[in-house]
Amino acid sequence: MDDNTPRARGSAPTVPREAAPKVQQPKPQALPSRSGPSSILVSPRQKGNPILNSVRAVAWEYSDIPADYVVGATTCALFLSLKYHRLHPEYIYNRIRDLKGQYGLRILLTMVDIENHEDPLRELSKTSLVNNVTLMLCWSAQEAGRYLELFKTFENAAPTSIRAQQPGTYSETMYDFITVPRSINKTDAFGLVHNFGSIRTAINAGPEEIGLIAGWGDKKVQRWCNAVREPFRVKRAARRGGGQDGTQAAVSLDVSLVQGENQTPAETGADNTALRRVDEAIPLAMEPGRSAPFAPTVSDADKRPDHRSAEDANEDEEEAMREAEMARAAVSDRAQSTASNPAKRKQAEEDMSEGVMAALNKLRKQ
């Protein structure tokens, strides 16, 4: 038909049709095929083992394998009795070495048939960690056979049965976080979020505010506050330094503080005056040629002056010094025994002063 031919009246213009979208067929997914045998492979070394009588749910057959049992394409098991291990401790090390890393999961199925099993199990645990071996313990042949059946049955099972359920929404994650402390359930978590509006506000809230929520008792409030406020790392108590001298000084300071709590300022001043006068008393000189049988004490009453010429001291001076020392010691003992009575303390100070002055006068006259 020529392009110049006139079109008929009332005829609509021709509209080209759009091509229909192609339907894409899903590609078939290849299912994981069982590359391993359908039965448990047993090494001829295990003939006569009583655990084979307990393997009934799954078929098993003998095969020439480096391990004792093959329960999957990448899973094997070695059997060990602790009685045999006690007699031949090198056996299991040679068996692990013979595997040469052929399997991804290597199980050491251990029969605990001795009483003192702590030390052997500790040794086997270390060996398992070093050689990438999983240690499984069993206490009977039936239990060991059941383990072999389960390993073979769940060879191609998905991990969903043992995998923890992951929260899908934010609210589920929030409730899981709040219910971590003991005895706090989802109802308590809902009440906490409903009252405070956010986790941040709930964490910063005080115990008094949280205690107003219905269902939140004292124990729940305390556990929640401890969970959100305690540090992640426990700080160890700082070791107190100082030797014996520091300890004695601290003890003496504590004793003085305790004694000073029950004394008035006037009594404290009187005590300080008495101690100062005792310190100012002239000490007893040492006799020439006599060695001290023991070291002098560290108390202020027994301290000697640093510079004392023993050649200038005569017998009269020594006698006067002894009298002064005896008077001072007697007065100090009396002052300590009557420290709680101000009147007695005053009398003790006067007696001490009179004794010291008498000794000094006698020394001057000579």
Describe, in plain words, how this protein is organized in 3D:
The protein is of the alpha/beta class and 366 residues long. Among the domains are: 40-156, Rossmann fold (3-Layer(aba) Sandwich), CATH 3.40.50.10130; 170-229, Orthogonal Bundle (DNA polymerase, domain 1); 265-286 and 311-366, no CATH class. The protein has helices at residues 82-87, 91-99, 118-131, 141-153, 170-178, 186-196, 199-204, 207-210, 218-229, 244-261, 265-280, 315-337, 342-365, and strands at residues 40-42, 60-62, 69-70, 75-81, 105-111, 134-138. A 6-stranded mixed beta sheet has the order 2-1-3-4-5-6, sandwiched between helices. Strand 5, helix 3 and strand 6 (134-138) form a beta-alpha-beta unit. Helix 11 runs parallel beside helix 13 (342-365) and helix 12 (315-337) runs antiparallel to helix 13 (342-365). It is elongated and about 135 Å long. The model is unreliable at 238-268 and 273-313 (pLDDT under 50).
